[in-house]
Specification:
This protein has helices at 5-27, 38-58, 70-88, 97-100, 106-120, 124-144, 146-150, 155-176. The protein is an all-alpha fold. The chain has one domain (6-178). Helix 1 (5-27) packs across helix 6, helix 5 runs antiparallel to helix 6 and helix 6 runs antiparallel to helix 8. The radius of gyration is 17 Å and the shape is flat.
């Protein structure tokens, strides 16, 4: 239905590779690790090629953006707002993640877009891979927020990211499991 575990894992890795490469290159963080950005440009190029291949192979016959189940959509949007807010919350040093790079806004937009497409998916195969990608992306987002708690001493930013990611996962899973929207 949604491909083998190996195929689903590849799709999740591709999304993570692309986001990491864009964030590291866009924010100039590569300067901390290497003298030139060529290794990260190579990572970005390889990730783009992998994403193109996966999209060609798994392209749904129809993309839809509506209708979506209202309770699921509410959870996904609320979660996206919380993830966005976590990047805007100032840490004790006076800086928020968005101060480091404006590309921090990209993360909640990408995860909400993936989750929304999963909510609106018609084909079972598209629902499976979009839901797997969106939930994995949301969980990785929550894990990536752990340094805000441990190293950044910003528990509010961590909780916002954790609760936002959990809401996104709950919204997508409610659609996948086809939970009733009304009792």
């Amino acid at each position: 239905m949604g491909g083998t575990c190996r195929t689903r894992c590849r799709r999740r890795r591709v999304a993570g590779v692309l986001e990491d490469a864009l964030l590291i290159l866009g924010a100039g963080i590569w300067e901390n690790d290497t003298e030139t950005p060529w290794s990260w440009l190579a990572v970005l190029g390889i990730g783009l090629v992998m994403a193109a291949v996966l999209l060609v192979v798994l392209w749904p016959e129809r993309w839809r953006i509506r209708p979506v189940p209202v309770p699921s959509a509410a959870l996904v949007v609320a979660g996206g707002i919380l993830v966005l807010a976590s990047g805007l919350i100032n840490h004790p040093d006076g800086f928020a993640f968005v101060d480091v790079t404006v590309l921090a806004v990209l993360e909640p937009l990408v995860v909400v877009a993936l989750a929304w497409l999963a909510l609106a998916a018609v084909e079972a195969r598209a629902l499976t891979w979009l839901a797997a990608t969106a939930t994995t992306y949301a969980v990785i987002s929550a894990i990536a927020a752990i340094p805000a708690l441990t190293g950044g001493n910003a528990p509010v930013a961590f909780l916002a990211a954790l609760l936002g990611s959990a809401a996104i996962v709950a919204g997508v899973l409610s659609r996948v499991l086809r939970l009733p929207s009304r009792p």
